[in-house]
């Protein structure tokens, strides 16, 4: 019996989600040893949050473009825009996990009142949406990438994709707010 990715989208989504979330929580929890990664110069490590903010802003643009292309039924452009969004997200995630593993989390430098009433709620929602987005993104991407365009219309790609794109946009936007609070405002 031939096993094909197109016939195993839910299983592959689950597997990829578990691996991705394990890497994220492993980096956050300090489980991934620093010794497994080459150490970049401190100047590069300190530039990563700024680069990730730019990547996030660019991803917001490519996601919005992808949604617009889908609404206009320009599906080839939609695919390119959403593929670019996934590449940007993967780049963001690799840079984020690399820095997190080597440097750890960044302490909030602002006042306690802003920390508890603004920063923590924004950060919590950003993290929750990012975690929820991972399986949704894998699912819609695998549906689209394992089928010719004519067959994608018969899947849940459109319905799940709308939810995924919305949550992804909010997550990226809140990530930029977190960046601004950590590195610009305070």
From TrEMBL:
Protein's UniProt keywords contain Transmembrane helix: yes
Keyword field: Membrane, Transmembrane, Transmembrane helix
Superkingdom classification of source: Archaea
TM helices/strands, residue ranges: 12-32, 44-68, 80-98, 118-145, 166-185
Pfam families assigned: DUF420
Keyword flag Metal-binding: no
PANTHER family: DUF420 DOMAIN-CONTAINING PROTEIN, HYPOTHETICAL MEMBRANE SPANNING PROTEIN
The name this protein goes by in its record: DUF420 domain-containing protein
